[in-house]
User: Which sequence fits this backbone?
C-alpha cells in the first residue's frame, strides 16, 4: 500500500496544494510507478487519502493516456507516431521494433519485458524518430540504435543512449 | 540574415553550461528578481512588461503585461501563477529545452511574475512525459530555495514565492489554460466555459495567470535590460522580442532556433535549418504547430511575426515550424494530424468529439482508396460546423490541417477519390472493405 | 412581472420580444420566459452550466460567434436571435453529429416518445444522414440491479454525472475515457454502489440510462400520471406515479414541484411496488375457531367488529378499549380514527408510532418555544450559514432534507457541524460528513454528554448573547453554574469528544448569523430525548438564535406523517392541534366543536396500553397499520399483551406479525390507492392522490372507522375525504394552507419568556446531570439498529425494486474489527449476549467506529432477540435499538445455511 511506504512523499505532496484533490495526478503517477499500473486497490487507497470517491479517481485515470489500468511490461516502449516524427521515419521505427520484439502495437512480450505502444507527439519533433521507454527519451533513432537499446535494457535494465538534458 | 545574439538560448549555448544555480548566477541570473524585490512596485513590473510588448509564446500571442493587469488588485485571498509547460502541440519542443537546459531562467521569470501579480504560489504544469524536465526543475527549485531565491520572505523582502512542479499524465488538451487548471485541480482535463476567465476565476476559482514557459523566461531579461530594449527587437510595435522556433520535418538541421520575429521562414528553413534534407524541394510547411493551417512555398518569405503569418492565412501559434518535401502526401499528412486531434479531443463538445471521429473516418477512407465523390463536401461542411462552435480553441485547431490541405492540394484528394472510383467500379457495396477507427 | 426592489433588472430582446429579467439570468432562461424554447441537452436548471452539447447556440448582436445561451448571462440591452437560418443550421449540425454515432434504436427504447433527441431531430434534421461510417459500439451495461445503461444512446451531456456530483453529492458516476469513447459507468467494472436515487435516470435527456424495473414494459404515451406524495419518510416528496392500465410502471418527480423539486431517493424512485406486493390482504378476514382466517364480506366483518367493541364497552367500560395507529396514514385517516376512538368508543387511550421518539421533540418544542413544528423550512436551511446535524444520519433517513443541507454547504458556503455516532469516512459513495467542517463522532450514543459539552463551550467561550444575558440573567447564570459542574474530562469519558473539537463546533455555531439545528433519531429515539432537545433549545437561547429570523431547530420525522399524527391528536398527550389533552380549556373547545363531551378517562401511551392489556385492563385493541410485535424487542412482551386480549382488530395491508394474531383483519388501502393529506417533517400539508385502484377489497382507513361508527350507532359520517379535511381545517384553523411557501410557525415569545423566567428550573438539574456511562462488557461490541437509505421501516421490504438493491440485512463492521475477528466480506458471524444469539453475514463499512456493529433495522428479525427495552420515564418512549453483544467468527459455516434466519419470512 502506498501510505505504508510513501507516507513522507504523500505528506509532502499534500502540503503543496490548498485542495487535496490536486494531489490526484501526482499520487496516480506514484501508484503507477510503484506497481507498473494503477490497480483498483491503489485507486481506492488514493480516494481515501484525498477524500474522493473511487469513481472520481477512476474517471480521472481514464482521461490520461499515461496511466494504465492493466499491468504492462517492465519496459514500456512508446513510439511517437505524430506527423512530425512520421515525416522522418516513425513508421519505420515501429516496424523495427515489431521485428525486434516480435510483437505488435499494444502487445507485451511473453517474458513481460516489453510493451509496445504507438503514441501521439512526445515533444521531440526535431529529433525524431524517437521513443520513450519508461521515464527516458531516446532520440534520432536508427535501426541499429534500436537494437542496441533493447539489448542493453534486456541485459542491464538500463541504457546509456537515453537523452540527457543536453538536447541538440 | 544578419547574425543575432540570442536571449533565451544564450546561456546554454556557452560551452559546458549545465544550468546549475552557480552557473546561472554567474551569468547574471537572479539579478532581475533581486532588483524588483528591492523595491520596484508590482504595478511597475506589470507596466514594464506591458511596454515591452511581450506576447504569449504559448500559442495565442496575448499581451503578457495586459494579462497580468487583469488580476484584481484588491482580491483578499490567494492568487496563483501557472506556468504552462505542457508543450504538447505537435511540432513544438522549445519549452523542453528551456527547462532542461536553463531551468533557473524559467524559475526567475516565474518568481518575478508571481511578485508582479501578487501570487504566493506558482505551479509549473509540465507534461507527464517530460520526466527529465520535471526532475531538473525539481532540483533547480530546491537549489533556488536553498539559496533564498524562492521560498518564504525572499531576500528579506517579506514576499513569499513558492514554486512547485506538477506533472500531467498524458493529455494534449491540458495545455489549454482552463483544462490545465482542471487537471491541476485533480480532475479530467476538460476546458472550462468562459467567461469567467482565469484572471478572476482560475485555479480553485481564484485569480490566476497562466503563462507559457518561454513567455516567462523572457521576463528577467526585460526587467534587466528594459522594455525599450525588448520592444526594439522583432517587428514592433505588435510583435516584439525574439521567439524560439522549433524546426522539424524534412530539413537538414532540425532544432530550436531563436530569432527576432522579423526574420522570415526562408531564414529559418534555408539558412538556419540548412534547407531541405534531400534534393526534393519544399512542398508545404506548417508555420506554427499542428493547429496552424499549412502554407506553401509561396509563403516562405513571410515574416515570422504573428501579424504576417495571420495575413498569409495561418498562424504563428506555438512556433513549431514543420517543413515537408515534395512527394509528401498532403492527404496523409492531414490524416496523421487529424488522428492526433481525434485522439486528443477531450470529448466535451459535440462538434469536436463527434466531428473529429467522423473526419478521421472519412480521411482514412480517402487515404485507403475508398473515398467517395461527396466526401470533400462533407469534410468541408463538418469542419465548418466545428470551427467557432466549441468551448475551446481545439475545435478551430483541428480543422486547420484539413481545410488548408483541401485549399491548396485539393487535387490530391480528388486523385485518391478517383482511384477509389476506378477500383470500386463494378463492386457491390458490401464488397467494399470497411475501416474502423483505431 | 414584478421584481424584488433590490435586484437590478435588465432589458433583453429575444426574437424580437423585449422583456425584463433579473441580473444574472441566463439567456436560455430569459428565452423560456418569453416563450422561446431553445433546444438543449446539457443545460439543466439544477446544474451549473457546462455548455458541452452546443445545441443551444444563439446569435447575440455584436458578438461575432454564436454563443451558448445556457452559459451566457443576459447583459442589458442584449439582442438575441434564436431562429435565424445560421443558428438553425448550427443546431442541425449538432444533431447530425449526435445521430452519427447513435444506434437509432428508438423502437425499443424506453425513452422513445419523450426523448429530447427524438423531438429535436423531428424538428430540425433531414431524414437522410450523411454519416456512412462505422458507429462506435459500447456493450450494454447494468449499473447494478436496477439501472441499465445503453451508452450508444448517450449524448455525452454529462447531466447524470453532474447531478450525481453537484446535487446528490454522491459522486458515484464516472465519465470514463476520452473523446467519442467517453462513457458513463461506476468504476472499474464494479457493481454500482450508490444511493440509487434514480436521479441519473430522470435527468438523462435520452434513453441512455433507464430503469430496469420497467424495462420494455411500456411506451411513454400509454402512461397515465398522478401527482401524489411519497409515503416513505418525513420529507414528503412529491412524486408522479405513472401507470399503464392498473400496472405501476414508474415513479418520477417534476422539477419545480413539491418540497423535493424533482429530486428523490431510492425509496421514492424504486420503492413504488411496496403496495403492489402479492401478499396484500385482499379481503376482510375473521379468525375461525380452528385458528385460521376466513375471508368474509365487509358487512360481516364490520358488524362483527362493531358488535364486539360494543359488547366489551358495555361489559368493561370504554377504557377497556385502546387504539394504536401507524404514522404512515393520512391526516384524514388519523383524524377520523381519534375521533372514532374518543367519541364512539369513548376512550383517550390512543397512541401512534410518533411515540417511538418524534413526540420527544415536539414536547420540547412546545415547552420552550410554544410551537410544535419547525420554525424554519428548507428555504431557511439553504440560506443558513451554520447548520448543525445532531444524532442523524440525515443522508439515509431524510435524504431530501440532506440535499438542502448539501446545497447550503456547496452552493452557499454554509458551515456544517455534524454530531453523529458515525465516523467521517468517505466510502465508495460520498456522504454528508465529507462536507462537514466540524465532525464530532459521539461514542456510546451519549448525545446528552455531547450537548452538555456544547452548552459548556457556549458558556465558557463567552458565546452567550449579551441581550439574552441581560434579559434572563437567572437562566444564563443557572446554566453557567450547571455546566461548570460538569468537567471536560467527564464529557470526554462519556461521549469520547475532545474539548477543543466541541469548542470549535460551538464557536462556529454561536458565530453563525443564521443557524439551523436538525435533530435525528439518535437523540429523539433515546432515553432523555425530550431533555436533550430542550438542552439544544437552551443552546439556541443562549446563542441568541432562538428568536432570530432564519435560525431554528427541526426534528426529523422518520415516517411520512409523524408530524401529522401529532397534529391530528393520535398521540396520548394531544388532541388535534395539537392541543394538550389535560388542559380543560382545549377539552371544552373540542367538546363544543364536536358537539359531544370528550371522554374523561386518562390517556395511555403505547407502553401503557400494552401493560394494561397484559394486566387484563384493556380487553380490545384496535391497531391500524402498526406492528408492535416486530417493532419492539421480545422483552416488551407484546405477544403476551396481545394474547391476553379478548379482541384484536388490525387494519392492515399485510398479515404482519401483529395482524397474524388478530381476530379480525380489515384490508386497508396503501397511500397510492387513496386521497388525503400528509404533513411533512417541516410542517407542509400536502395532497395525497389516488394513483391506482385499491387492491382487492381494501378501503381507505377513515372509511372503515366511519362505517363502524354507523354500525355502533354513533355515526361520524363524511361525504368524502375532502369533507374530513374541511373539518380538520375547522378544528385547526388555517391547517395546511397548501402551497409551496407556507410560512413556518413563529416562536411564541410568551412561552419563551415563561421558560427562561422560571420554567426551565423544573428539570434543569436532571437535564444537566450526566448519568454514569453504561459499563461496556469485556470484549463486547455495541450492536445498533440503523435505518438504511434503501428502506423505510419494514414496509419497503415489500418493494421489489428496493429488495433488488438491498434484499437482506448484513452486519456492518469496519475493516479493523473484521481483521480482529478474522472475517471478511460475506462471512458469517455469531452474535450473542444474555438475551440470545443470532448468526448473520458481515459487510465492511468504514464509517462504523471500532467496537460497534450496525444492522439495518428493516431486517432486524434475526437479531431482535438480542435487544432489551428501556422506557423513558418522562415521555414513555420505548428505546431499544442499541445492545451489547459478543461477536464470534463462524467462518467454517457458510452464510445462507444453518442458523441463519430467513429474514424474508414474516
Ligand atoms: C488545444 C490547446 C492546446 C494548448 N497547448 C498549449 C501548450 O501546450 N503550452 C502552452 O504554453 N500553451 C498552450 N495553449 C495555449 C494556452 O491556452 C494559453 O493560451 C497559454 O498557455 C497562455 O500563455 P501565454 O500567454 O504565455 O502564451 C494551448 C491552447 C489550446 C487551445
Ligand atoms: S473543443 Fe474539443 S477539446 Fe476543446 S473543450 Fe470542446 S471537445 Fe474538448
Ligand atoms: S444546453 Fe447549452 S451547450 Fe448544451
Assistant:
Amino acid at each position: 500500500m502506498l501510505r505504508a511506504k510513501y507516507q513522507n512523499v504523500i505528506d509532502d505532496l499534500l502540503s503543496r496544494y490548498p485542495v487535496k484533490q490536486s494531489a490526484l495526478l501526482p499520487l496516480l503517477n506514484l501508484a503507477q510507478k510503484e506497481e507498473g499500473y494503477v490497480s483498483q486497490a491503489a485507486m481506492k487507497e488514493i480516494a481515501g487519502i484525498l477524500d474522493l470517491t473511487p469513481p472520481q479517481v477512476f474517471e480521472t485515470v481514464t482521461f490520461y493516456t499515461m496511466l494504465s489500468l492493466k499491468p504492462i511490461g517492465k519496459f514500456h516502449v512508446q513510439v511517437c507516431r505524430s506527423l512530425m516524427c512520421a515525416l522522418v521515419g516513425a513508421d519505420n521505427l515501429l516496424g523495427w521494433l515489431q521485428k525486434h520484439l516480435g510483437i505488435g502495437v499494444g502487445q507485451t512480450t511473453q517474458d513481460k519485458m516489453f510493451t509496445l505502444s504507438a503514441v501521439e507527439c512526445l515533444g521531440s519533433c526535431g529529433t525524431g524518430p524517437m521513443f520513450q521507454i519508461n521515464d527516458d527519451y531516446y532520440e534520432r533513432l536508427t535501426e541499429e540504435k534500436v537494437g542496441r537499446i533493447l539489448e542493453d535494457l534486456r541485459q542491464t535494465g538500463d541504457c546509456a543512449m537515453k537523452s540527457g538534458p543536453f538536447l541538440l | 540574415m544578419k547574425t543575432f545574439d540570442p536571449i533565451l538560448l544564450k546561456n546554454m549555448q556557452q560551452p559546458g553550461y549545465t544550468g546549475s544555480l552557480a552557473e546561472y548566477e554567474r551569468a547574471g541570473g537572479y539579478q532581475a528578481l533581486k532588483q524588483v524585490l528591492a523595491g520596484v512596485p508590482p504595478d511597475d513590473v506589470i507596466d514594464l512588461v506591458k511596454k515591452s510588448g511581450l506576447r504569449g509564446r504559448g500559442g495565442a500571442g496575448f499581451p503578457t503585461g495586459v494579462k497580468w493587469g487583469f488580476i484584481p488588485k484588491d482580491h483578499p485571498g490567494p492568487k496563483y501563477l501557472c506556468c504552462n509547460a505542457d508543450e504538447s502541440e505537435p511540432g513544438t519542443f522549445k519549452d523542453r529545452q528551456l527547462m532542461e537546459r536553463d531551468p533557473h531562467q524559467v524559475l526567475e521569470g516565474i518568481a518575478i511574475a508571481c511578485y508582479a501579480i501578487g501570487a504566493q504560489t506558482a505551479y509549473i504544469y509540465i507534461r507527464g512525459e517530460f520526466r527529465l524536465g520535471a526532475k531538473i526543475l525539481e532540483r533547480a527549485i530546491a537549489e533556488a530555495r536553498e539559496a533564498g531565491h524562492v521560498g518564504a520572505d525572499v531576500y528579506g523582502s517579506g514576499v513569499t514565492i513558492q514554486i512547485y512542479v506538477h506533472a500531467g499524465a498524458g493529455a494534449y488538451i491540458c495545455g489549454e489554460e482552463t483544462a490545465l487548471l482542471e487537471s491541476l485541480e485533480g480532475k479530467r482535463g476538460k476546458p472550462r466555459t468562459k467567461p469567467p476567465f482565469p484572471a478572476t476565476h482560475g485555479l480553485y476559482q481564484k485569480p490566476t495567470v497562466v503563462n507559457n514557459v518561454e513567455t516567462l523566461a523572457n521576463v528577467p531579461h526585460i526587467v534587466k535590460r528594459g522594455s525599450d530594449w525588448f520592444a526594439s527587437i522583432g517587428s514592433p510595435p505588435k510583435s516584439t522580442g525574439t521567439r524560439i522556433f522549433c524546426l522539424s520535418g524534412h530539413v537538414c538541421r532540425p532544432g530550436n532556433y531563436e530569432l527576432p520575429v522579423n526574420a522570415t521562414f526562408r531564414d529559418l528553413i534555408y539558412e538556419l535549418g540548412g534547407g531541405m534534407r534531400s534534393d526534393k524541394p519544399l512542398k508545404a510547411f506548417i508555420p506554427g504547430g499542428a493547429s496552424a493551417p499549412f502554407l506553401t512555398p509561396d509563403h516562405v518569405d513571410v515574416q515570422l511575426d504573428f501579424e504576417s503569418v495571420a495575413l498569409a492565412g495561418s498562424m504563428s501559434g506555438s512556433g513549431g515550424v514543420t517543413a515537408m518535401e515534395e512527394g509528401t502526401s498532403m492527404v496523409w499528412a492531414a490524416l496523421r494530424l487529424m488522428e492526433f486531434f481525434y485522439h486528443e479531443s477531450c470529448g466535451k463538445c459535440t462538434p469536436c468529439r463527434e466531428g473529429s471521429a467522423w473526419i478521421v473516418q472519412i480521411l482514412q477512407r480517402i487515404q485507403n482508396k475508398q473515398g467517395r465523390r461527396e466526401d470533400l463536401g462533407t469534410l468541408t461542411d463538418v469542419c465548418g460546423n466545428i470551427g467557432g462552435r466549441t468551448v475551446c480553441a481545439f475545435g478551430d485547431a483541428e480543422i486547420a490541417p484539413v481545410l488548408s490541405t483541401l485549399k491548396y492540394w485539393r487535387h490530391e484528394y480528388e486523385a485518391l477519390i478517383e482511384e477509389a472510383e476506378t477500383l470500386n467500379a463494378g463492386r457491390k457495396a458490401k464488397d467494399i472493405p470497411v475501416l474502423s477507427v483505431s | 412581472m414584478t421584481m424584488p426592489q433590490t435586484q437590478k433588472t435588465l432589458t433583453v430582446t429575444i426574437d424580437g420580444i423585449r422583456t425584463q429579467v433579473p441580473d444574472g439570468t441566463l439567456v436560455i432562461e430569459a428565452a423560456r420566459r418569453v416563450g422561446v424554447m431553445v433546444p438543449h441537452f446539457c443545460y439543466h436548471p439544477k446544474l451549473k452550466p457546462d455548455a458541452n452539447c452546443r445545441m443551444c447556440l444563439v446569435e447575440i448582436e455584436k458578438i461575432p460567434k454564436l454563443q451558448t445561451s445556457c452559459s451566457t448571462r443576459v447583459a442589458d440591452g442584449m439582442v438575441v436571435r434564436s431562429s435565424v437560418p445560421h443558428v438553425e443550421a448550427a443546431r442541425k449540425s449538432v444533431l447530425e453529429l449526435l445521430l452519427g454515432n447513435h444506434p437509432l434504436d428508438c423502437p425499443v427504447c424506453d425513452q422513445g416518445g419523450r426523448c429530447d433527441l427524438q423531438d429535436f431531430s423531428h424538428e430540425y434534421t433531414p431524414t437522410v444522414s450523411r454519416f456512412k461510417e462505422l458507429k462506435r459500439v459500447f456493450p450494454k451495461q447494468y449499473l447494478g440491479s436496477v439501472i441499465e445503461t445503453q451508452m450508444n444512446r448517450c449524448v455525452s451531456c454529462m447531466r447524470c454525472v453532474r447531478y450525481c456530483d453537484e446535487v446528490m453529492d454522491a459522486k458515484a458516476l464516472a465519465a470514463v475515457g476520452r473523446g467519442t469513447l467517453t462513457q458513463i459507468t461506476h468504476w472499474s467494472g464494479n457493481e454500482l454502489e450508490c444511493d440509487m436515487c434514480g436521479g441519473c435516470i430522470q435527468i438523462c435527456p435520452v434513453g441512455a440510462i433507464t430503469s430496469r424495473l420497467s424495462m420494455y414494459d411500456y411506451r411513454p404515451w400509454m402512461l397515465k400520471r398522478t401527482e401524489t406524495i411519497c409515503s416513505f419518510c418525513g420529507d414528503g416528496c412529491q412524486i408522479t406515479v405513472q401507470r399503464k392500465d392498473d400496472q405501476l410502471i414508474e415513479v418520477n418527480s417534476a422539477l419545480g414541484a413539491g418540497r423535493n423539486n424533482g429530486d428523490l431517493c431510492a425509496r421514492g424512485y424504486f420503492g413504488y411496488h411496496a403496495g403492489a406486493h402479492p401478499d396484500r390482504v385482499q379481503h376482510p378476514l375473521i379468525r375461525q375457531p380452528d385458528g385460521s382466517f376466513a375471508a368474509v364480506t365487509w358487512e360481516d366483518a364490520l358488524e362483527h367488529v362493531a358488535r364486539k367493541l360494543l359488547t366489551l364497552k358495555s361489559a368493561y367500560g370504554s377504557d377497556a378499549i385502546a387504539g394504536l395507529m401507524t404514522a404512515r396514514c393520512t391526516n384524514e385517516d388519523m383524524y377520523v380514527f381519534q375521533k372514532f376512538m374518543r367519541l364512539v368508543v369513548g376512550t383517550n387511550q390512543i397512541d401512534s408510532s410518533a411515540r417511538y421518539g418524534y413526540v420527544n421533540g415536539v414536547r420540547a418544542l412546545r415547552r420552550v418555544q410554544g410551537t410544535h413544528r419547525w420554525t424554519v423550512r428548507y428555504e431557511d436551511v439553504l440560506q443558513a450559514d451554520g447548520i448543525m446535524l445532531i444524532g442523524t444520519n440525515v443522508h439515509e433517513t431524510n435524504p431530501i432534507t440532506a440535499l438542502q443541507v448539501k446545497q447550503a454547504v456547496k452552493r452557499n458556503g454554509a458551515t456544517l457541524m455534524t454530531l453523529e455516532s458515525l465516523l467521517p469516512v468517505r466510502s465508495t459513495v460520498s456522504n454528508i460528513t465529507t462536507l462537514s467542517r466540524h465532525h464530532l463522532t459521539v461514542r456510546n450514543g451519549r448525545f446528552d454528554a455531547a450537548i452538555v459539552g456544547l452548552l459548556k463551550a457556549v458558556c465558557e467561550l463567552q458565546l452567550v448573547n449579551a441581550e439574552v444575558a441581560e434579559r434572563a440573567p437567572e437562566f444564563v447564570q443557572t446554566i453557567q453554574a450547571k455546566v461548570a459542574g460538569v468537567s471536560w474530562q467527564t464529557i470526554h469519558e462519556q461521549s469520547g469528544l475532545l474539548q477543543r473539537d466541541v469548542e470549535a463546533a460551538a464557536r462556529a455555531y454561536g458565530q453563525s448569523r443564521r443557524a439551523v439545528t436538525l435533530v435525528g433519531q439518535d437523540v429523539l429515539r433515546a432515553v432523555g430525548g425530550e431533555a436533550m432537545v430542550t438542552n439544544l433549545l437552551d443552546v439556541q437561547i443562549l446563542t441568541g438564535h432562538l428568536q432570530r429570523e432564519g435560525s431554528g431547530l427541526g426534528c426529523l420525522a422518520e415516517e411520512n406523517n409523524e408530524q401529522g399524527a401529532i397534529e391530528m391528536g393520535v398521540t396520548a398527550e394531544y388532541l388535534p392541534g395539537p392541543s394538550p389533552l389535560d388542559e380543560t380549556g382545549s377539552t371544552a373547545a373540542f367538546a363544543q366543536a364536536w358537539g359531544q363531551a370528550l371522554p374523561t378517562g386518562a390517556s395511555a401511551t403505547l407502553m401503557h396500553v400494552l401493560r394494561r392489556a397484559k394486566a387484563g385492563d384493556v380487553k380490545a385493541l384496535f391497531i391500524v397499520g402498526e406492528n408492535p410485535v416486530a417493532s419492539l424487542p421480545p422483552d416488551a412482551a407484546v405477544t403476551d399483551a396481545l394474547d391476553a386480549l379478548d379482541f384484536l382488530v388490525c387494519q392492515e395491508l399485510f398479515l404482519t406479525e401483529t395482524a397474524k394474531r388478530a381476530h379480525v383483519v380489515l384490508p386497508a388501502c396503501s397511500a397510492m390507492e387513496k386521497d388525503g393529506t400528509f404533513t411533512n417533517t417541516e410542517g407542509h400539508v400536502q395532497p395525497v392522490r389516488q394513483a391506482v385502484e385499491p387492491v382487492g377489497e381494501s378501503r381507505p382507513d377513515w372509511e372503515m372507522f366511519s362505517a363502524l361508527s354507523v354500525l355502533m350507532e354513533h355515526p361520524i359520517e363524511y361525504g368524502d375525504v375532502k369533507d374530513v379535511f374541511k373539518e380538520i381545517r375547522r378544528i385547526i384553523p388555517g391547517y395546511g394552507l397548501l402551497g409551496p411557501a407556507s410560512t413556518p410557525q413563529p416562536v411564541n415569545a410568551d412561552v419563551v419568556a415563561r421558560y427562561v423566567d422560571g420554567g426551565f428550573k423544573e428539570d434543569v438539574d436532571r437535564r444537566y446531570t450526566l448519568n454514569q456511562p453504561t459499563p461496556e462488557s469485556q470484549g463486547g461490541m455495541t450492536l445498533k439498529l440503523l435505518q438504511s437509505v434503501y428502506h423505510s421501516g419494514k414496509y419497503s421490504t415489500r418493494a421489489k425494486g428496493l429488495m433488488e438493491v438491498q434484499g437482506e440485512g448484513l452486519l456492518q463492521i469496519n475493516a479493523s474489527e473484521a481483521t480482529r475477528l478474522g472475517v471478511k466480506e460475506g462471512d458469517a458471524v455469531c452474535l450473542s449476549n444474555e438475551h440470545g444469539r443470532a448468526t448473520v453475514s458481515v459487510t465492511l463499512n468504514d464509517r462504523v467506529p471500532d467496537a460497534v456493529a450496525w444492522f439495518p433495522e428493516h431486517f432486524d428479525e434475526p437479531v431482535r432477540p438480542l435487544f432489551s427495552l428501556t422506557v423513558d420515564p418522562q415521555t414513555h418512549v420505548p428505546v431499544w435499538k442499541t445492545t451489547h453483544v459478543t461477536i464470534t467468527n463462524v467462518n467454517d459455516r457458510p452464510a445462507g445455511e444453518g442458523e441463519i434466519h430467513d429474514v424474508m419470512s414474516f
Remarks:
- Chain C is about 30% helix and 20% strand.
- The domain at 285-357+561-731 of chain C is CATH 3.40.50.740 (Rossmann fold).
- Residues B 56-60, 62, 64, 84, 86-89, 173, 175-177, 210-212, 215, 392-394, 397 surround flavin mononucleotide (ligand 1) (CB under 6 Å).
